Amino acid sequence: MVEVSTTDVKNTASQTIGGGLDSALTGVARLTSSDADSDDTVDVQQSELVRLWNDDAREFVRLSLALDNDENTTRTGNRVTIDPDEIALCSEDSEGMSADSTTFEQCQALVREMKVTIDVTGESSGMVTYLFQDSPLVAVGYSETLSSFELNFGSLNALLNAEMARDPDNSEISSPFATFQGAMKLTAEATNVTSGAEAATLSLEVSQPILIVSADAVTRIARDAGKLFEMSVDAGNDNGSITLDVGALEASSARGDSQLSYDLSGLSATIELVNNADQLTVSNLSVGESPLRIALDNSDVAVVGLDAFGFTVTEQGGEFVLDGDLDLRLVLNEILDNDTVVDSMSSLLELTVPAGTVLRKQANGAIEVAGGGPVNYSLTTADGVNQLVLDVGECGDNGADDQLQRVNCN
Q1: Cβ atoms of 270 and 284 closer than 8 Å
Q2: Among 163, 251, 375, 407, which residue's Cβ finds the most Cβ atoms within 10 Å?
Q3: What torsion do the CA atoms of 199, 205, 208, 209 make, to the nearest 10 degrees?
């Protein structure tokens, strides 16, 4: 058993929750600010990013852990169990609350079905779990430099059901889902908490496979477990990166009497910011091994094919440099008013640009092929074909008829 008093366990959890998160948000604000050396700029951005956490979430944590009252707190070994005070959590100071309001009574009823546990793993680390009807709703891991927040969709659906049952006439409460399963987890870890040199990682993952089906069964979303994105910031060196990996995603929704479906095998990209975002590098940008498809009653509405490629953008020279072959193919079919997909009225966009090509924007708005090439562009519609090949030293821009054409570079 960790030799820390129950009172100290609760106080430490309250003070430590969010460790790593503040550094991550501050680092992002510093890295993306227009003047990285200006504390004023960072303070403005940071206040917007962390206001909700500092002003509302921390106060909720303090009240839910009953820091001022141990009467409803029990302990068995390294587990502390708290029965939250519904009067404190549903305080009249909260927006829309008053002691004689229906909202106040509903809030109290929900809190009565909640419990909070703290599983202590060290003097300043552990896991705070908010349970609704004895099932984990939110699990919060904490330590001095790491925090995690996991939301369980099944328990959230149970909470929505309970709230609807108590106030079935309230149109502001969203209808529950027929199926709402899975969990998502946000993790923040700081490796440097020094002001002005914050370094941290922030990640979001599907921690349990997601399956969402609406109450009317017309909307469905499915996604396997896996990381969605990870962001790293190093404010001291003015560097940062974001890795995006949406993974395989299936979704469908209603369009009138028809069914619109989305099939994505995987969307991925890695973005790196260098020297206070003066240079941006994107790598491994792709929609997956098979094209992204959007279909209406099994007829393709849009098909997007994009093999993995990368590019670098520099703020100083305004250059766009291809670090890999760009091969984009987009098919769009027109949907008539009666929800019929018409293949004969489709549009086909094809764009290929070889690795090493340098594109530069000119003062007149045209885009110059400043190196590498050629750029091959083709757009086929019911009105005809617009094709253009641009070699080194040539420029392209939209004409009066919105067709891409060769223009003077000056």
Answers
A1: yes
A2: 375
A3: -170
